[in-house]
Structures are given as structure tokens and as C-alpha cells.
Design goal:
Layout: E1 2-6, H1 10-21, E2 25-30, H2 34-44, E3 47-49, E4 61-64, H3 71-77, E5 86-89, H4 97-100, E6 106-111, E7 128-132, H5 135-146, E8 152-154, H6 157-187, H7 196-208, H8 224-236, H9 240-258
Parallel strand pairs: 1-2, 1-4, 2-3, 4-5, 5-6, 7-8
Antiparallel strand pairs: 6-7
Length: 260
Amino acid sequence: MKISFIGSGRVATHLAIALQQSGHQIQQIYSPNLTHAQQLAIQVHAGAVDQLQQLDHQIDLIIIAVKDQAIAQVAQQLPKHLSNTLVLHTSGSTDLQVLQQHHLRCGVLYPLQTFSFEKSVDWQQVPLLLETSQPQDLTLLQDLAQQLSSRVYVYSSAQRLSLHLAAVFACNFSNYCYDIAKQVVDGAAVDFSLLYPLILETAQKATEFNPKDVQTGPAVRQDQQILKMHQDILQQQQRTDLAEIYQQLSHAIQRRHTAT
């Protein structure tokens, strides 16, 4: 397939490279910042443009990989010569109707993964969540997705949104807790790497058991003395923000485990 990308960030970069390696031709990379477009275009042997009107009409697929709040504006501004082209976005939280308002042939290719420029992605293990406005395009999109991943699912916009919300808790919030943990040990001149086995074991157990069943720690044990000691330490360090987070999470764990 001939594919053009709108966007040159992390998702666009990983996805464009993966599709090119799967044998597809990346035709163009669009970004309002031409330098950013060129940086990705060089990697996938594509052309770089900074005007939407410059997008080639002789392509099979356009993938919009931009910030969620920009998808609607991009969809509205796509030139008319692309009206018969299949247009996808890659967002977990954006309803398909955002594209349907402007394009008859549209869909979603949402990779349920966290992306960074520093680390490669094993696409075979990345869940790809699909949705299209036209049944015939779903077949096409499934074929494309199966070339990248062994985990391809067809989910509605509402289902995809629930996964996106869950991913914020499982990934973004948990990573912030790792950041807090590093701040705590850094303040006491303790090596953060000592926590690595604990972090990995906790994540592994969450994939093997119901997370509720393997909850540990002073909150689930109702150990009020330890809970108070930890909060006192944070207060003494003048980290009232972390003390508040600690208290809220501890109370939430206690409520969760006293409700049943």
C-alpha cells in the first residue's frame, strides 16, 4: 500500500517505520514543521511536506497520528482531492465520528502501547484496536494490522475509550508512582535500582492474577502505625503533595478491600 502520515511524533515514527519494514511504501510525511517532517521522511524514504494541499492523491491510506485535540481540525482541513481515500487516526480516546463528519471512508488503528523515541517496539506483541465506518475497509485494515501484530481486535469507540482510560491508570499513573519512588530514595541517597526486582515482580503478577487478589502493603493490612510513619516522613520533608497522594491511595486501597 501507499501510505502517507500526518504527524511526525512518536506514534507516527514507530508506525511508519514498522509499515515500511512490512513492505509498504510510505509516500509522504506531513508536519507543519517541515524539519520534523523531514527527520521522519528520511528514515522511511518518503517525501516531506508542510502543507496539507501537497499531499499526493494517489495513495491508498492516510494515517493521522497527531495529538488528540488536533484530530478534528486536521480531518476538517484535509483537501478535497483525498475525499475517496481511507483516513485513519491512531487515538484511543477519539470517537470515530470525529472523522465520519468529514470523510465517508474512515477508521481507527489504535496501538495500545506507550511509545518513546529511545526504545524500539515489539509490534507482534502490541494490541491493535480497529474500527471502520465501512465494512469493506475493516477487512483491508485487518489485513494491514495482522502484518504488524498477532493481537488484532475490533472494538467500538466506547470500548476503545475504556481501554484508554485503563491504560492511563496502568501506565501513566503507575509510571508517575515510579517517579515518586525515585524522588523518595534520591532524597535519602539510596540506589533506585534496588526497587527494580520489586517493580518487575509486581507488573508480572498483575498479568498473571487478578490485581485485587495480589494487593500487598500497609494499607491492605490496615497497619495504621506504618501508614502514619510514612506520611510523617513526607511531611517532615515538606512534600505535602506526596503525603496527600499517599493518603488518597492508601484510603482507596482500604476501601477496595473492606467493601467485599
